[in-house]
Amino acid sequence: MLNWGTVQDENGKKQLPDCIQSEDRLILTPLGRYQIINGLRRFQVEYQGDPELQPIRSFENPVLVRLFFRLSSAINERFSAQMETLCAREDFLGSFCRYHLTNPCLAEKTRHSPLTRQSQIRQPRVSLRFLASYRTLIYLLVAYFIASWFCVGPVAFTFLLLLGYLSYAVVMTLFTVKKQKPHQH
What we know:
The chain is mostly helical. 52% of the residues lie in helices and 3% in strands. The chain is built from 6 helices and 2 strands, in the order E-E-H-H-H-H-H-H. A hairpin with a 4-residue loop joins strand 1 and strand 2. The model is unreliable at 1-7 and 106-120 (pLDDT under 50).
Protein backbone atom coordinates (compact mmCIF):
# COMPACT_ATOMS: atom_id res chain seq x y z
CA MET A 1 0.00 0.00 0.00
CA LEU A 2 1.22 3.46 -0.91
CA ASN A 3 -0.06 6.45 1.04
CA TRP A 4 -0.14 9.63 -1.06
CA GLY A 5 -1.57 11.78 1.77
CA THR A 6 1.82 12.57 3.27
CA VAL A 7 3.15 14.60 0.32
CA GLN A 8 3.26 18.31 1.15
CA ASP A 9 3.46 21.36 -1.07
CA GLU A 10 6.00 24.18 -0.51
CA ASN A 11 3.69 26.05 1.86
CA GLY A 12 2.75 22.88 3.78
CA LYS A 13 -1.01 23.42 3.29
CA LYS A 14 -1.84 21.62 0.04
CA GLN A 15 -1.67 17.86 0.35
CA LEU A 16 -3.14 15.09 -1.75
CA PRO A 17 -6.06 13.16 -0.25
CA ASP A 18 -5.33 9.86 1.47
CA CYS A 19 -5.39 7.12 -1.19
CA ILE A 20 -3.94 3.75 -2.11
CA GLN A 21 -2.06 3.03 -5.36
CA SER A 22 -3.49 -0.02 -7.15
CA GLU A 23 -2.17 -1.48 -10.40
CA ASP A 24 -3.53 1.21 -12.72
CA ARG A 25 -5.27 3.81 -10.57
CA LEU A 26 -5.56 5.53 -7.21
CA ILE A 27 -8.25 4.38 -4.78
CA LEU A 28 -9.49 6.79 -2.13
CA THR A 29 -9.56 5.53 1.43
CA PRO A 30 -12.43 6.48 3.76
CA LEU A 31 -10.12 9.12 5.24
CA GLY A 32 -9.43 10.44 1.72
CA ARG A 33 -13.17 10.68 0.98
CA TYR A 34 -13.66 12.58 4.22
CA GLN A 35 -10.82 14.96 3.29
CA ILE A 36 -12.28 15.69 -0.16
CA ILE A 37 -15.88 16.10 1.06
CA ASN A 38 -14.84 18.57 3.75
CA GLY A 39 -12.45 20.45 1.45
CA LEU A 40 -9.37 19.62 3.51
CA ARG A 41 -7.42 18.21 0.57
CA ARG A 42 -7.87 17.81 -3.17
CA PHE A 43 -6.16 16.45 -6.26
CA GLN A 44 -4.34 18.83 -8.59
CA VAL A 45 -6.28 18.62 -11.84
CA GLU A 46 -4.69 20.03 -15.00
CA TYR A 47 -6.22 20.13 -18.47
CA GLN A 48 -4.00 18.11 -20.84
CA GLY A 49 -6.04 18.14 -24.03
CA ASP A 50 -6.12 20.44 -27.01
CA PRO A 51 -5.84 24.05 -25.79
CA GLU A 52 -8.33 25.16 -28.44
CA LEU A 53 -11.00 22.81 -27.06
CA GLN A 54 -10.59 23.49 -23.36
CA PRO A 55 -13.59 24.92 -21.54
CA ILE A 56 -14.10 28.68 -21.73
CA ARG A 57 -12.40 30.27 -18.74
CA SER A 58 -13.80 33.04 -16.56
CA PHE A 59 -11.14 35.45 -17.88
CA GLU A 60 -12.22 34.92 -21.52
CA ASN A 61 -15.09 36.41 -23.50
CA PRO A 62 -17.26 33.43 -24.58
CA VAL A 63 -18.49 35.07 -27.79
CA LEU A 64 -14.95 35.96 -28.87
CA VAL A 65 -13.61 32.51 -27.95
CA ARG A 66 -16.18 30.89 -30.24
CA LEU A 67 -15.62 33.45 -33.00
CA PHE A 68 -11.82 33.11 -32.90
CA PHE A 69 -12.13 29.31 -32.79
CA ARG A 70 -14.17 29.34 -35.99
CA LEU A 71 -11.77 31.77 -37.66
CA SER A 72 -8.71 29.76 -36.55
CA SER A 73 -10.33 26.52 -37.72
CA ALA A 74 -11.11 28.00 -41.14
CA ILE A 75 -7.53 29.29 -41.52
CA ASN A 76 -6.04 26.00 -40.34
CA GLU A 77 -8.26 23.94 -42.61
CA ARG A 78 -7.51 26.05 -45.66
CA PHE A 79 -3.75 26.46 -45.17
CA SER A 80 -2.71 23.32 -43.24
CA ALA A 81 -0.58 21.91 -46.07
CA GLN A 82 1.27 25.21 -46.54
CA MET A 83 1.89 25.55 -42.78
CA GLU A 84 3.31 22.02 -42.58
CA THR A 85 5.57 22.73 -45.56
CA LEU A 86 6.83 25.97 -44.00
CA CYS A 87 7.46 24.34 -40.61
CA ALA A 88 9.41 21.52 -42.27
CA ARG A 89 11.94 23.94 -43.76
CA GLU A 90 15.39 24.06 -42.13
CA ASP A 91 16.09 27.77 -42.74
CA PHE A 92 15.13 30.90 -40.81
CA LEU A 93 11.59 30.95 -42.25
CA GLY A 94 11.06 27.38 -41.03
CA SER A 95 12.26 28.30 -37.54
CA PHE A 96 10.04 31.39 -37.56
CA CYS A 97 6.99 29.32 -38.53
CA ARG A 98 7.76 26.55 -36.01
CA TYR A 99 8.07 29.20 -33.28
CA HIS A 100 4.61 30.62 -34.06
CA LEU A 101 2.62 27.69 -35.44
CA THR A 102 3.52 24.91 -33.03
CA ASN A 103 3.32 24.64 -29.27
CA PRO A 104 6.45 22.88 -27.97
CA CYS A 105 5.07 22.61 -24.42
CA LEU A 106 1.99 20.75 -25.65
CA ALA A 107 4.05 18.50 -27.89
CA GLU A 108 6.30 17.65 -24.93
CA LYS A 109 3.30 16.91 -22.68
CA THR A 110 1.74 14.75 -25.36
CA ARG A 111 4.99 12.87 -25.90
CA HIS A 112 5.39 12.04 -22.19
CA SER A 113 1.74 11.50 -21.25
CA PRO A 114 0.71 7.85 -20.90
CA LEU A 115 -2.87 8.78 -21.79
CA THR A 116 -2.13 10.05 -25.28
CA ARG A 117 -0.53 8.42 -28.26
CA GLN A 118 2.51 9.58 -30.21
CA SER A 119 0.35 10.15 -33.31
CA GLN A 120 -1.68 12.82 -31.51
CA ILE A 121 1.15 15.38 -31.44
CA ARG A 122 -0.29 18.65 -32.62
CA GLN A 123 0.15 19.76 -36.20
CA PRO A 124 1.20 23.35 -36.98
CA ARG A 125 -1.73 25.71 -36.77
CA VAL A 126 -2.87 29.23 -35.98
CA SER A 127 -4.46 29.91 -32.58
CA LEU A 128 -6.26 33.20 -31.97
CA ARG A 129 -7.83 32.28 -28.62
CA PHE A 130 -5.43 34.56 -26.71
CA LEU A 131 -7.23 37.55 -28.26
CA ALA A 132 -10.43 36.63 -26.39
CA SER A 133 -8.81 37.19 -22.99
CA TYR A 134 -10.19 40.18 -21.12
CA ARG A 135 -6.65 41.16 -20.12
CA THR A 136 -5.52 41.24 -23.75
CA LEU A 137 -8.59 43.23 -24.74
CA ILE A 138 -7.99 45.77 -21.98
CA TYR A 139 -4.31 46.13 -22.95
CA LEU A 140 -5.30 46.73 -26.57
CA LEU A 141 -7.97 49.23 -25.57
CA VAL A 142 -5.53 51.16 -23.38
CA ALA A 143 -2.86 51.05 -26.09
CA TYR A 144 -5.30 52.41 -28.73
CA PHE A 145 -6.42 55.10 -26.29
CA ILE A 146 -2.82 56.19 -25.60
CA ALA A 147 -2.06 56.12 -29.34
CA SER A 148 -5.01 58.43 -29.94
CA TRP A 149 -3.42 60.97 -27.56
CA PHE A 150 -0.43 61.07 -29.91
CA CYS A 151 -2.71 61.52 -32.95
CA VAL A 152 -2.03 58.01 -34.25
CA GLY A 153 -5.11 56.56 -35.90
CA PRO A 154 -6.33 53.02 -35.33
CA VAL A 155 -5.15 51.72 -38.72
CA ALA A 156 -1.69 53.25 -38.33
CA PHE A 157 -1.43 51.99 -34.75
CA THR A 158 -2.47 48.48 -35.82
CA PHE A 159 0.26 48.58 -38.46
CA LEU A 160 2.82 49.77 -35.87
CA LEU A 161 1.65 47.08 -33.44
CA LEU A 162 2.06 44.36 -36.06
CA LEU A 163 5.44 45.73 -37.10
CA GLY A 164 6.59 45.79 -33.47
CA TYR A 165 5.43 42.22 -32.92
CA LEU A 166 7.12 41.08 -36.13
CA SER A 167 10.40 42.60 -34.90
CA TYR A 168 9.98 40.89 -31.52
CA ALA A 169 9.19 37.58 -33.24
CA VAL A 170 12.29 37.79 -35.45
CA VAL A 171 14.51 38.42 -32.41
CA MET A 172 12.90 35.56 -30.45
CA THR A 173 13.29 33.23 -33.43
CA LEU A 174 16.96 34.15 -33.70
CA PHE A 175 17.47 33.35 -30.01
CA THR A 176 15.74 29.97 -30.31
CA VAL A 177 17.78 29.10 -33.42
CA LYS A 178 21.01 29.92 -31.55
CA LYS A 179 19.98 27.69 -28.63
CA GLN A 180 19.15 24.76 -30.89
CA LYS A 181 22.39 24.79 -32.90
CA PRO A 182 25.57 23.71 -31.13
CA HIS A 183 28.31 26.31 -30.91
CA GLN A 184 31.15 25.64 -33.35
CA HIS A 185 34.67 27.02 -32.97
